[in-house]
Amino acid sequence: MRIMSKKCIICNAEAGYMIKDTSDYYCGECAEEHFGDITLLVKMEAEAQKLKELFRDQIASPDENEGGRDGSN
Prior knowledge:
- It is a single chain.
- The chain has 73 residues and is mostly helical.
- The chain has a domain at 17-62.
- It is built from two helices and three strands; from the N terminus they run E-E-H-E-H.
- The longest helix is centred in the C-terminal third of the chain and has 17 residues, at 44-60.
- The model has no long low-confidence stretch (mean pLDDT 80).
């Protein structure tokens, strides 16, 4: 399963960076050009890895996810 890639908000190329807690995505070239210090941005791969781990944890322990919408059984 492939997660849809995000596009740079400036040039529409595939994004590799994002501003934390926003939906602003940037490719490497635009990120360097507009921010200079790209270490302040969040790498998209790191965020994707967090999501993969979350899904893996939910699949590994399905008993915790059963029950009603409010979490009651």
